[in-house]
Amino acid sequence: xxxxxxxxxxxxxxxxxxxxxxxxxxxxxxxxxxxxxxxxxxxxxxxxxxxxxxxxxxxxxxxxxxxxxxxxxxxxxxxxxxxxxxxxxxxxxxxxxxxxxxxxxxxxxxxxxxxxxxxxxxxxxxxxxxxxxxxxxxxxxxxxxxxxxxxxxxxxxxxxxxxxxxxxxxxxxxxxxxxxxxxxxxxxxxxxxxxxxxxxxxxxxxxxxxxxxxxxxxxxxxxxxxxxxxxxxxxxxxxxxxxxxxxxxxxxxxxxxxxxxxxxxxxxxxxxxxxxxxxxxxxxxxxxxxxxxxxxxxxxxxx
Length: 303
Description:
Elements: E1 6-12, H1 17-23, H2 37-53, E2 57-67, E3 71-74, E4 78-84, E5 93-99, H3 102-114, E6 119-122, H4 131-140, E7 148-154, H5 162-183, E8 186-191, H6 218-232, H7 236-250, H8 258-265, E9 274-281, E10 284-292, H9 296-299
Parallel strand pairs: 1-8, 2-7, 2-8, 3-6
Antiparallel strand pairs: 1-10, 4-5, 9-10
Helix pairs in contact: 3-5, 5-8, 6-7
């Protein structure tokens, strides 16, 4: 078991609201007939892993909490309310009730400033948490019995270039790791994003009709497989080098920086990642992927 003050696991954790809708939890108001089982069952494997790891906190970076000035950290002890997906309100109207790790939030803010980043603590008690934060947190831990920390997606670096944005997210990853070490937390990280993100603009009359679900096009699928094979092979450096081209070619949500942030926080692990599942949601490519850092030495063959 990993020591205190370390990242014990990282997950690529896609956030289509369809996955919560398909699961029919009591917290979500709409009801479904199921759907997207490949991804939902993949998340089930991650839930079991988190139960084994018993982390102190789950930290999630969301592309849908967009901030123009700086990187923001949730900083309210308890956040409770109804989160509604602005695009799919018929699928996602979710009653959330979460405990925020305030000490880690303070530490992340301090380390981000030390890294030379613009940062802010989000201290509005009436703040409505976005679905990009809620969906992976629910799917990883539906009991909500582990404190959380949400981080915003700062869009301003991308006014310059995709590469500049990724470089800034790497700095945020370094700051997050130092904050986790400083506070002695055993942390799980979640990069909340899809892979390829070109999608259809019409859905079937029954959203969960899986006979209508397929990837947007073959080129998108090939790019997704290229990245996933790099993850499975532990080729973190090659993965980071190809991200800007992948983003520009597939309109990937990775552009928001979640994956670069997590890879940097995990110190670009050269261990094989476990792909629990890959499937599509309205044409986007989604993968649930795990990096087991608690057993890094074992996964790396004892090196």
